[in-house]
Design a protein that fits this description.
Elements (H helix, E strand, L loop, with lengths): L3 E12 L2 E12 L3 E5 L6 H9 L6 E6 L2 E2 L10 E4 L11 H10 L5 H14 L15 H13 L5 E5 L7 H18 L2 E6 L2 H7 L2 E6 L2 E6 L1 H6 L4 H6 L4 E11 L2 E5 L5 E6 L8 E6 L5 E4 L7 E10 L3 E8 L4 E7 L13 E5 L6 E4 L1
Parallel strand pairs: 3-8, 3-9, 6-7, 7-8
Antiparallel strand pairs: 1-2, 1-4, 4-5, 9-10, 11-12, 11-14, 12-13, 14-20, 15-19, 16-17, 16-19, 17-18
Helix pairs in contact: 2-3, 2-4, 3-4
């Protein structure tokens, strides 16, 4: 097993009576791309700022390569940082902006020039040394900020919502560049975002934050297929939650009763508590539609809306006993032929692909 490069141990941050981060413990491998994912106010950025040295933890410890950072000021931690606002100096050229961290370290001029050229090559901005930031696009400015953060070869690069101000196409382009740079440099990256798609595109592993804690850590595939909590299940991917009653729980699976008396056996059970009230998670793409049989064996409903999205079609079904479910069928699926609103349908799914969370 690879030893931890960054160790975060029982970190807590209080602002007076408010606890922003509580009991966060995390191990990060050298060269790993780790993303902190969660809604606003979940503690992800505060955790990043404590690692950067911009915030002091109320308690706990942070170690990099075996050395505690708690008593080391931010400017001596040798950690690169890229923010949502690139904070480029408008009066300096691209080359001067990128060179700035080396100039304050008083490196020789020839070495600085060599490193600037290499950093700009890395972000594919060769020949832009003499251009001012105001004459560059948002994507190009982001690459300049990346080059500046990487030019002194920091062992750790922190990125806090760096792409949130960009449009979708440009954001995806820069995401690809960040992954490429990560592969080429091997730098350890900690990345903060509230965008689940961005987290899935970029990360080796994702830590899902909720209310100042980490709910679950894992690869995107693990978090999607095996969510540990209802919050993770709802935050990663599109989700349907249906009220359910646990009839019988055996080990890690359960037999549940849904509306209309429909019973389903062998559903993975992710939490155990007293009582029988629960929620059944169904992913839209794991539901199949059938013509209504009216035999009470499956959930049934009426199609309210169909939305064509290119590669797939999203279908909103109002359930017979209340509530609604979203179904996603791929382009060209046979069931889409002749399907229309107001049609009565049954919803069929594999219980092993669903999840049940007790209330």
């Amino acid at each position: 097993m690879t030893s931890s490069f960054i160790e975060i141990r029982d970190i807590r941050k209080d602002y007076g009576p408010i606890t922003a981060v509580q009991d966060v413990t995390l191990d990060i491998r050298k060269g790993e791309f780790m993303t902190f994912l969660g809604p606003s106010g979940s503690g992800k950025s505060t955790t990043l700022y404590m690692l950067a040295g911009f915030e002091n933890p109320t308690s706990g410890d942070i170690r990099v390569d075996g050395k505690s950072l708690i008593e080391i000021p931010s400017h001596k931690r040798n950690i690169g940082m890229v923010f949502q606002r690139y904070t480029l100096f408008p009066h300096l050229t691209v080359g001067e902006n990128v060179a700035f961290p080396l100039r304050i370290r008083r490196l020789p001029k020839a070495e600085i020039e060599t490193k600037v050229k290499e950093a700009l090559r890395l972000v594919r901005l060769e020949g832009f040394e003499d251009r001012k930031p105001a004459l560059m696009s948002g994507g190009q400015q982001h690459r300049v900020a990346l080059a500046r953060a990487l030019i002194y070869d920091p062992p750790v690069l922190l990125m806090d919502e760096p792409l949130s101000a960009l449009d979708k196409k440009l954001r995806e382009e820069i995401q690809f560049e960040i992954r490429r740079i990560h592969r080429e440099t091997g730098v350890t990256i900690l990345y903060v975002t509230h965008d689940q798609e961005e987290a899935l595109r970029l990360s080796d592993r994702i830590a899902v934050f909720s209310h100042g804690r980490i709910d679950q850590i894992g690869s995107g595939q693990t978090l999607y297929a095996e969510p540990a909590t209802r919050f993770v299940a709802g935050f990663i991917g599109d989700s349907n939650f249906i009220d359910a009653e646990i009839v019988e729980a055996q080990g890690s699976s359960a037999r549940v009763r849904l509306q209309g008396g429909v019973e389903v056996t062998g559903v993975p059970l992710h939490s155990r508590s007293e009582g029988t009230k629960a929620s059944l998670l169904l992913r839209p793409e794991r539901i199949e539609l059938r013509k209504a049989a009216n035999d009470g064996r499956n959930l049934s409903g009426t199609i309210r809306d169909l939305t064509f999205l290119g590669n797939n079609t999203d279908i909103l079904v109002d359930l017979s006993k209340g509530g609604s479910v979203s179904v996603r069928l791929p382009f060209g699926h046979p069931m889409l032929q002749g399907l229309s609103t107001a049609a009565n349908v049954d919803l069929v799914f594999d219980p092993a692909g669903a999840h049940v969370f007790q209330a």
